[in-house]
Amino acid sequence: MVDTISGLASLEYEHDAWGIDISVAGSQKGMMLPPGLSFNAVSEKALAASKANTSLRSYWDWHDMIAINKLGTFPYTPATNLLFALKEAIAMLEEEGLDNVFARHMRHGAATRAAAKAWGLDLVCLDPHSYSPALTAVMVPDGHDADAFRKVVLENFDMSLGTGLGKLKGKAFRIGHIGHFNDLMLMGTLAGVEMGLDLAKVPHRGGGVLAAMEVLKGRDVVPMLKTKAAVA
Ligand SMILES: *Cc1c(COP(=O)(O)O)cnc(C)c1O
């Protein structure tokens, strides 16, 4: 079972070819839409397991949905406006080309990691094969509060960074580089982080924005860690 909420349309992902039984995605990340739609891809094996399961459920049951989807419609009122938006989002992805979309996310991940390295801040992810093309989580040095830093960035630059989740609360912040996003948006994002580190007096070195720009300029030299290799 794969949670590919931020992964769908951000990086290479093949439900059938990789033998996945259940993929769960949402509209609000790589699909560039407001929240409100969820997508499930379900293998025959998972469907059979679900049919064999006699526990009671209604809302979360796939079978009503599948039965009526065959007629091209939904068992309950869908978020109609989001379906129109989805049609446009898919057209945008096809226009750019999925390979280009994936490469763009890879470049933005590489550039963001280069910025973190230049700042002298650690990444949460220690395994290069697990680096995310969709977001980068960055540790703040011991004795500093990542959420206080996020607040400074929000108040000064109107930019909302992600909080550290679970045991990383207060220790890390997350930079999203996903969906409808381009090089200049990333440069603005990283400039906001770098200026915020300064304002919040989080110890760091300068030069993160420049390091990221070097990665963005050298389009061909970005290390393209293939997701496939990570899965294999
Ligand atoms: C964003 C995200 C979630 C949570 O989705 P929300 O509905 O936005 O809270 C779960 N899993 C992954 C991988 C995500 O990126």
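^ pyridoxal-5'-phosphate complex. The chain has eight helices and six strands. The pocket of pyridoxal-5'-phosphate is lined by residues 3, 5-6, 26, 28-29 (CB under 6 Å).
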